[in-house]
Amino acid sequence: MICNNISVNEKGHLTFAGQDTTLLAERYGTPLYLLDEDRVRENCRTYVRSLSENFSDSLPLYASKALCFKKIYNIVADEGMGIDIVSSGELYTAVKAGFPMERAYFHGNNKTPYDVAFAMEHGVGYFVCDNPSELKLIDNEAARRGIRQKILLRLTPGIDPHTHKAITTGNIDSKFGEAIETGQAEDFVAAALLCKNIDVRGYHCHIGSQIFNDGPFSAAAIKMLRFSAIIKRKYGFEAPELNLGGGFGVRYIEQHPKIDCAAEIKKLAVTIKNTCATLGLREPKILMEPGRSIVADAGMTLYTIGCVKEIPGFKNYVSVDGGMADNPRYALYQAEYTAYIANRAAQRGNFVCTIAGCCCESGDIIGENFVLPKPSPGDILAVCTTGAYNYSMASNYNRLPRPPIVILRGGESYIGVKRETFDDLIANDV
Prior knowledge:
Elements: E1 6-8, E2 14-16, E3 19-20, H1 21-28, E4 32-36, H2 37-54, E5 58-63, H3 70-78, E6 82-85, H4 88-96, E7 104-106, H5 113-121, E8 126-129, H6 132-145, E9 149-156, E10 178-179, H7 184-193, E11 198-204, H8 215-235, E12 241-246, H9 261-279, E13 285-289, H10 292-295, E14 299-310, E15 316-320, H11 329-333, E16 339-341, E17 351-356, E18 365-372, E19 380-384, E20 405-409, E21 412-417, H12 422-425
């Protein structure tokens, strides 16, 4: 199985977090998002423990964009993490969940005056400031409120993480941050240090997602620390914090490597400590922003199979009662997944097929070249590793209600997000 929280029971049914997925589909209906709470907590603890063991000061921040609803904030707060938020909507959700806002970092490349004011009103801990225009907004709003606002400055280190271009964020020509190589980053820092209502706490970078080893993070850390040393020499400012952005990649298919996050963080720590020693810098507080690696393998989506269409000499289509409305990642990134027939999980398969959604779009597919037992209408299809960027990117395209999130914990299940109704779809219509 693709993940160790998935297995097959004595009935030949697929289990997830120790529970029979066919019974869950029967109880809650499909399409259905499942979330393994115990796995979420385990993944949080890996980052909290590994960072604290390897750095004198550290804080992992859960990247809300991966999966945002109130319960997830309760879980990551329990586990001692901070949060990365990128909108007033994510901030509001965290506030309503009772998350301690001093551990919230507000990201984004185009915060509006409303966003800045709203965040300060709710006591956000930090802004990750993206550009000079935003710096002025934050400084002016802080002055109006008579406070000194903590910020990190987002810089672009020019590191290629060798991942999908759509999830690469640290190139020089990125929409995010100010580039070190062009000299804009230094100008950015100089301007921030002159702001009377700004407390510059350090630097932030984010190079991309689905990174499977410490190499790109280490390269980014070296680049950022060398920049920090230059700023220290020229301006007398030594940054006390360094945020290295996202976490490590996850296994969507068998070909993806297994990741030992703790081992990779240990290697990253050696690089940072050695670089600081060489440059004459104090070791900064280290932050990382795992999202995908916190929730992805804690998630599974269940569908009911409808029509099975075989086109001799071409391909086979297996249609399900969901698709791009609840999982747009194939359409965006050609994302790959592992899938099983949940009610016949013990059977070996040789039926090669494309899993198609129910939206009125030719591109509405979950993926291609799945090898399954020959499906039949009414079978339950389980798509694995869907905890990240599925619910959070879901839409009501074709006026489809979004599925619920059912949380699995200790052999029990409970609803984390209710299934949308048709009345929900028209609630804001006038």
